[in-house]
User: What shape does this take?
Amino acid sequence: MIKNVIFLFLLMILLCACCDTRIDPRDQDAEDPPNMYSLARVVNWESSGESKAKITLTDFYALLNQGNYDQAANLYGGSYELLREYNPSLDAKDKAGLLKAGCEINGFMCLEVRNINLVGDKYQHEFIFEVEFANLDGSLFILGPCCGATEESMPPKSSFTVQIVCASDESCLVMELPPYVP
Assistant: This one.
């Protein structure tokens, strides 16, 4: 009896390892309880989903930093409204041009990521990270007070919240623009 249970368990693990399909538990019928096989695939999605989100986040900011705005636009799913307001002379559909203006003209700090920490996730496909950015010399980017404010009224900030949304096919999009310095 025990040998049969162990054999079935090992067979189930082998089947899970061979399967590349991901299951979103929200897609399952509420009446159908998940079996061990589908649970293993959900766990696989969770670990690879977070990893893909981190890679997308790092790539997006690195692409901006390197001036690869066309590629960066493919990884950005947030609003372009602020960039459109700052750049009314640009074509509103030119996402790469808007990102370029944000980084090179408008004061968005298109720096590379220095550190990432997962602080939360929503529905297995949305991840919230606290991100620190690196200045060009590698030091920690700190957003200080601006516009006449004091450190007491506007404390320096070195950690920024970034949301990443991933589809069930594991493609992910960054939802936040880089930090802004007026």
The longest strand covers residues 112-122. The two ends are 70 Å apart (CA to CA).
